[in-house]
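Example record for the data management plan.
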Amino acid sequence: MDQPHPHTHSQLDPMEVRVRALESLLTQKGYVDPAALDAIIETYETRIGPHNGAAVVARAWVNPEFRAWLLTDATAAIDSMGFGGRQGEHMVAVPNSDQVHNMVVCTLCSCYPWPILGLPPVWYKSAPYRAKAVQDPRGVLRDFGVDLPATTRLRVWDSTAEVRYLVLPRMPAAAKGLDEHELARLVTRDSMIGTGLALEPGTAIPPP
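Corresponding structural encoding:
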């Protein structure tokens, strides 16, 4: 389950302003049902979209050869599973370990790997997240309920239009022996951005 987050979303970029204005106009004219639109966006943000990335992570967890390929050429490895495409032309996978925890941000806008993570969450695009992720990444993790040991080094990767990142979260020790399908259910969107951890077995989200 996605971790809660207290970030404010009061600052909108020009594109978001235009989108909201268009949405308001279409709603007023009866063309758009706001509740239905919100439900669709939520589905793609948290359920359908991240399933592609979760499948990639699960395969890397159980297949050492695929993991090595993913870390060497993430674009090709991801494409081999049918998840390539626009917004994912140049992917880089960064693995978490006992010593290092990775987190992704886009400091200039909201570059995001759509083919494997779906729509970017609102907080990822917010000015507070973009600023704090660089200045105080450990504080951001605490905001998301993740408290890492002081000995764990944090690395923040700045996503761009040219390069987008996938965090390869650590597999929970208790998940050893599970198959790819079962493992994929432990991989959350936030764990692939680096603001969360993989779920422990028994807490997986039921499939839609």
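Summary line stored alongside the record: The first strand starts at residue 91 and ends at 95.
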